[in-house]
Amino acid sequence: MGLYKEGAIAEKEAHLVALGTSAAVKCQYCIPYHNSVLKRLGASENEIKTAVLIAADIMKMSTLFYGNEFDLAAFKKMLSGE
Q: What is the CATH code for 2-80?
């Protein structure tokens, strides 16, 4: 796919992002595809596991903020250092 090979992100890193996204959305087709490409590109098991862990962390934090109705404006203010 052109986007992975010719995009602004290196091919291996693009597939790591795609794997994390695939895991987050639970795509049973995408996960084995990106895993196979990543192995062909020389990604380590640790890189693959880290991509999935990052996706899991984002999903966890999103669930916590959303479920507890944390105020988005207050969150953005906190991030800006105000």
A: 1.20.1290.10
